[in-house]
Amino acid sequence: MTRDEANARAASLNAEASADEHWLVKEASSGEWEVARLTGPGLGAIRPSGTHTESRPKPEEPADPRPALFRNIPPFGPA
């Protein structure tokens, strides 16, 4: 079996696989390519269900360290 044939076979088997199995392509010692089956809980490929983004809360603005007299004054003094 060629590598392309093995990849195609593994893809078709993975499409029908249960959640506890996964099919891989490996090269045998003879130089031939073969499909190997792995089994175990949670090994199946997880299919994407859409775009996933992580949203984190925006950090709070730090307190202004300047004294109250100098806060919120335009750059050239009082207006």
Spatial ordering of strands, largest sheet = 1-2
* Secondary structure tally: strands: 2
Order of helices and strands: HEE
The best one-word shape is rod-shaped
Please report the number of helical segments. 1
Mean pLDDT: 83
The Cα radius of gyration reads 30 Å
Protein structure class: alpha+beta
Terminal CA distance reads 83 Å
Residue stretches low in confidence (pLDDT < 50, at least 5 long) are none
Let me know the largest β-sheet.
2 strands, antiparallel
Strand content: 15-25%
Considering DSSP H and I runs of 4 or more, what fraction of the residues is helical? 10-25%
Main attributes of the structure:
single chain; 79 residues; alpha+beta; two-stranded antiparallel ribbon; 1 helix; rod-shaped
Plain-language structure description:
The chain has 79 residues and is of the alpha+beta class. The protein contains one helix and two strands. A two-stranded antiparallel sheet has the order 1-2. Strand 1 (21-27) and strand 2 (33-39) form a beta hairpin. 3% of the residues are buried.
Topology, element by element:
Layout (H helix, E strand, L loop, with lengths): L2 H14 L4 E7 L5 E7 L40
Antiparallel strand pairs: 1-2
Quick take:
The protein is α+β, with helices and mostly antiparallel strands. The chain has 1 helix and 2 strands, in the order αββ.
